[in-house]
Amino acid sequence: MKIGFIGLGNMGGPMAANLVKAGHAVTGFDLSAPMPEGVTGVTSAAQAAAGAEVIITMLPNGTILRAVAEEVIPAMAPGAVLCDCSPGEGQRARAVAEQAAAAGLGALDAPVSGGVGGAAAGTLTFMVGGDDAAFATVKPLFDIMGQKAVHCGAAGAGQAAKICNNMILGATMIATCEAFALADKLGLDRARMFDVVSTSSGYSWSMNAYCPAPGVGPQSPADNGYKPGFAADLMLKDLRLSQQAAEAADADTPMGALAAALYAQFVEQEDGRGMDFSAMLPRFEKRGRG
Ligand code: NAD
To answer: Which of 28, 116, 129, 166 has CB 3.0 to 4.6 Å from 158, enough for a Cys bridge?
Structure first.
């Protein structure tokens, strides 16, 4: 397939590289990131989109995505599909889908879970919103870049799934970190704590796959000085999206609201900016109840 790829950073770079390895022709555009081997670099988003059957975007935020979509949609070939893998608001996804449909194009919102490791290994999970035809076109590419693609519903449904997933992730990471800090103060060895919880009812992805305690459990950012990984500021961005969505839908989400407030404090008033989101553990370690 002829693919245009826009945004080849930590996530997009390895995703595009996997498409090349599988034999697809990928044309890429990024403002600064180097092109992965085999990707043909061009000097504008419109050039990357021209003649492509699928255009994939993996960009830092919604404002940038909207600007790129404005540029790319007029340059796309009839019937092509714009597949946005960046996380964002459902409302944005629906607006882009409407704009694409008016131009005779397909559109999908397809945010991912699995992080940089999943992008490199081709084991991401895609949560996809959009119509059946567009999903069918891009499905073979999801199967290369990921281990699972769930068609969640109409435009915006992928973003809804992502927001709900990350609200759970933010809250469970905080719960896991505060429990480790409590265990420390109760004199419990961290390796024993991990052994128990990872095989008991307190287990979660935060504990089992991404343990916030260094030297305990599988290799994670905690073992690398809490260098991201998944940055605390990106978690804060996602938690704020979940709270905006909850407000718009009149959903009661007290744990999500508290997680958003704690990550805001960590990133904006403490030393969390630039740290992995699991660096909540050293934060709790230093604190008492006061
Ligand atoms: P990144 O900053 O490494 O990559 C984004 C890339 O977009 C950069 O290379 C940047 O130069 C490029 N870019 C910015 N504006 C552009 C423009 N107008 N045209 C072309 N390129 C442009 O970020 P990342 O870690 O790859 O994450 C991308 C998105 O995926 C973020 O929204 C993030 O929240 C999300 N995400 C990240 C992870 C993770 O673990 N890192 C996991 C899931 C989702």
So the answer is: 129
